[in-house]
UniProtKB/TrEMBL annotation, chain A:
It comes from Wenjunlia vitaminophila (Streptomyces vitaminophilus). This is ABC transporter substrate-binding protein. The keyword Transport applies. It holds the Pfam family SBP_bac_8. Belongs to the bacterial solute-binding protein 1 family. GO terms for cellular component: cell envelope. InterPro entries: Bact_solute-bd_prot1, Chitin_NgcE, SBP, TAT_signal, TAT_signal_bac_arc. Gene3D superfamilies: Periplasmic binding protein-like II. Keywords: Signal, Transport. It comes from the Bacteria.
Automatic annotation (TrEMBL), chain B:
Its main location: membrane. It is a multi-pass membrane protein. One of its GO terms (cellular component) is plasma membrane. Coiled coil: none annotated. The keyword Transmembrane helix applies. Residues 67-295 form the ABC transmembrane type-1 domain. Belongs to the binding-protein-dependent transport system permease family. The chain crosses the membrane at residues 12-36, 71-94, 115-136, 166-186, 229-253, 273-296. GO terms for biological process: transmembrane transport. This is ABC transporter permease. PROSITE patterns: ABC_TM1. The lineage of its organism: Bacteria, Bacillati, Actinomycetota, Actinomycetes, Kitasatosporales. It comes from Wenjunlia vitaminophila.
Length: 474, 306
């Protein structure tokens, strides 16, 4: 053979090609948008009193559940009820923590499942899904009679704010949040009783309590330092309490100078004081949510900003006599605009029915079953969280944390706030406001003024960025 | 004859090249194409936006931070890993006291060390990252701070991953830890192929260990080192898994451990901006190409035949 092929050259070239190939992100395009392949829909069934959505009785139903703090047993139980109603239907169920990895290619390929619990760290961006017309309007299900009481529509059995949360800009309801979460300041009633403390209603009382605790070797607060976007769970409702609901609306609407409002400033300074005075458990900025919760259940810190899922999530480390409780955040003083008890509560576990699903009506029917009394009560008992259905708690002995959430909701009455930043602008809420600003401030590396300036700039940048879809409170 | 030769070569290359084209080249071309669109990654509907994605990148503070972190990793990681790998390999093979019957020998127990160094390589990177996450935990439970306390350094209790000045170094330390063993083994293999008479001659001339290393071992091992450098460079440019599993946020605090590959991932899979993310991917490709170019140029060196 001729010598025009040199082995070394060949190897060199191969190395070069390999170099180019290896690190670059080929995984991204492996799910490149293929053709739409419009999946065929199943035929409609017969509409009856028992089947108001005209579900095809023999059509298969595919459900994908996020396997997080709530597990997936509650959904399986509801599927059993579905099978009882439609014995000929074949229900396939899968649970995953990797919603996006599993489902994004299927959305691209036009063959999504019929009902999805789009939750967790790998949640698919709702704004994009709605914007790209990938979801079914759930209005037919909301207007169908409820499973328990044919005279009532499903929508009338839900808790306040749930339907609105599922809307984006129009009347259509794209998302049904199944769980109902109460955010606030969590603590152990036993620990407070032991030291003769009472939950502080004003910030001065809070500081006095923390000072006393510090003397006794207990830290006042801890929080998920690796995920500092847990801090707003108690900070945002406190802002509303101090300055009124408008403060949070302005923040959600990305209004200029929303973060320079005196109430916002006061709350951020108040939290900075906790850090500056050393009332925060040492090392907190390096803890993840589980680690911080464990320190808290061990009694190393008194308060933790969290949501009502914590009772289930921290179950393994919680002592029997812990008496987990939640309170609305402390206010500043008596000049606050809203009364003590103002609390953040909103829907969690967003369920969606994809537009291109084969059996979307089946997906909605399963949701209708889940929103019935029986499934709701099952959920409450299993995972100690409330559902969006207003009820399901009667005659059930609730675990202490959940009982406390229920009481806090009752005490709040009308004064429930629902900041939307965390579902409208995820990047802004989590990594910008949470990690890059609040987290830095609470770790003592940033002063409140600087923190506010930084957040305002982040918010302004998001407002200017036309690649981010915008929402407004109406 | 010439004709037959080409047919022969084509016959062997056609299938692998076709596979390469479908699974490597075409995703590349597609990625470049998508970087000029506003594709969300959640539906197959998108439109052409020209250079908008790149324009946005230039103004993106986080992109520059990620790029800076990547470049720092690219500089430090290969240097430290290969340096340590060479040092350990040298000690294991050549660095020991001279014993009867052998010109050169490793330190005592070198066979054992060789195996131990290779252990981290056996563990999956995910497991390593999770383990180190606990080691770095700053309160009582954390192994590192526990150790510091045990030796009486109660006042020195760093936040490790929680401290923006330390976080990236913590990540680097883990990556060095899990890669160094492989290079010890690789370099050991390389060193054992260097003829012993070279060492013998050098020793007779009165060379010490230091000189033997720089005058004999390193030059003869240069090809292997170069390969190692390329691989470490690739690992540094990626470093996705460690950042994703270990760091705060992940990617923080204050973007101090953000890297391009992770930023790309959040853009496409969390924010639904796959078009923007592919633009990031193209930027990463350009960095990689530049790196490859530099390595090829620097590494061009006459090969010693022996």
């Amino acid at each position: 053979m001729g010598s025009d092929f040199n082995r070394r050259d060949l190897i060199k070239r191969a190395t070069a090609a390999g170099l180019v190939a290896a690190p670059a992100a080929t995984f991204l395009t492996s799910c490149a948008s293929g053709d739409d392949g419009d999946g065929e829909k199943v035929e409609q069934g017969k509409k009856t009193d028992k089947n108001p959505l005209a579900v095809n009785e023999s059509a298969g139903l595919e459900v994908v559940i996020f396997d997080g703090g709530f597990g997936d047993k509650y959904a399986k139980d509801a599927e059993v009820l579905y099978k009882q109603a439609y014995p000929k239907a074949k229900v396939s169920h899968s649970a995953t923590t990797k919603i996006q990895t599993k489902l994004q290619p299927r959305f691209n390929g036009g063959t999504p499942p019929d009902l999805i619990d789009n939750s967790g760290a790998e949640q698919m961006d709702m704004g994009t899904l709605v914007g790209k017309d990938q979801l079914m309007d759930l209005t037919p299900m909301l207007d169908a009679p409820s499973i328990d009481d044919p005279t009532k529509k499903v929508r009338d059995t839900l808790r306040p704010g749930v339907v609105e949360m599922g809307q984006f800009t129009g009347k259509e309801v794209w998302i049904l949040y199944y769980a109902y979460t109460v955010y606030g300041v969590w603590y152990s009633q036993t620990l407070l009783d032991k030291h003769g403390w009472e939950y502080p209603k004003t910030w001065d009382e809070m500081l006095t309590l923390c000072a006393d605790a510090k003397k006794k070797g207990i830290a006042g607060w801890t929080y998920a330092g690796k995920h500092p976007y847990y801090l707003p769970f108690s900070m945002y409702p406190m802002m509303a309490k101090v300055g009124g609901r408008e403060v949070l609306d302005a923040i959600d609407n990305l209004e200029p100078n929303a973060w320079h409002h005196p109430a916002v400033k006061a709350v951020i300074e108040a939290y900075y004081e906790l850090a500056a005075k050393g009332y925060i458990l040492k090392g907190t900025p390096g803890l993840d949510h589980i680690q911080s919760q464990t320190k808290w259940t061990e009694g190393k810190a008194i308060f933790i900003p969290n949501g009502s899922w914590v009772e289930n999530e921290a179950k393994k480390t919680t002592p029997k006599d812990f008496q987990m409780a939640v309170s609305a955040p402390s206010g500043l003083d008596s000049s606050d605009k809203m009364p003590f008890g103002t609390i953040w509560a909103s829907g969690g576990e967003p369920f969606i029915v994809p537009k291109r699903a084969k059996n979307p009506m089946g997906g909605m029917e399963l949701l209708r079953i889940m929103l019935g009394e029986a499934s709701s009560r099952n959920f409450v008992q299993q995972v100690s969280s409330l559902t969006s259905m207003n009820g399901g708690t009667e005659g059930v002995t609730l675990p202490p944390g959940l009982q406390s959430s229920n009481d806090a909701l009752a005490a709040a009455g009308e004064n429930i706030v629902n900041p939307r930043l965390q579902d409208w602008y995820v990047a802004l809420q989590k990594e910008k406001i949470g990690i890059a600003a609040l987290g830095e401030m609470m770790a003592g590396r940033m002063k409140p003024d600087e923190c506010i300036k930084k957040i305002q700039k982040f918010a302004d940048d998001t407002a200017k960025d036309d690649s981010v879809k915008k929402y407004k409170h109406t | 004859m010439q004709h037959g030769k080409y047919r022969f070569i084509v016959g062997f290359l056609a299938l692998p090249l076709a596979i390469y084209a479908v699974f490597v080249i075409s995703p590349f071309v597609q990625a470049i194409y998508y970087s000029f669109t506003d594709w969300t990654g959640l539906s197959s509907d998108y439109s052409w936006v020209g250079l908008e994605n790149y324009d946005r990148l230039l103004d993106d503070e986080i992109f520059w931070k990620a790029l800076r972190n990547n470049l720092l990793l690219l500089l430090v990681l290969p240097l430290v890993t290969l340096g340590l790998g060479l040092f350990f390999a040298f000690m294991l093979n050549v660095g020991g006291k001279r014993r009867r019957g052998a010109v050169i020998a490793g330190v005592r127990g070198s066979g054992f060390y060789k195996v131990v160094y290779f252990f981290p390589q056996v563990l999956s990177i995910a497991i390593v990252a999770v383990l180190f996450r606990y080691a770095y935990e700053p309160t009582e439970g954390g192994a590192l701070n526990g150790f510091l306390r045990a030796i009486g350094l109660d006042s020195v209790q760093p936040l490790w991953l929680g401290d923006p000045d330390l976080a990236l170094w913590c990540v680097m330390a883990v990556m060095v830890w899990c890669n160094v063993g492989f290079y010890v083994v690789l370099f050991s293999a390389g060193m054992s192929s260097i003829p012993r008479d070279f060492y013998e001659a050098a020793l007779l001339d009165g060379a010490n260990r230091f000189t033997t290393f720089f005058r004999i071992t390193l030059p003869l091992l240069w090809d292997t080192v170069q390969t190692g450098w390329i691989y470490m460079g690739i690992i540094a440019l990626d470093s996705f898994a460690v950042v994703q599993i270990m760091t705060i946020g992940p990617g923080g605090p204050d973007y101090s451990t953000e890297v391009l590959s992770f930023y790309l991932y959040t853009k496409s899979f969390r924010d639904g901006q796959a078009g923007q993310a592919t633009a990031l991917g193209v930027a990463l490709l350009i960095v990689t190409l530049i790196f490859a170019g530099i390595v090829m140029r620097l590494g061009r060196r006459e090969r010693l035949e022996f």
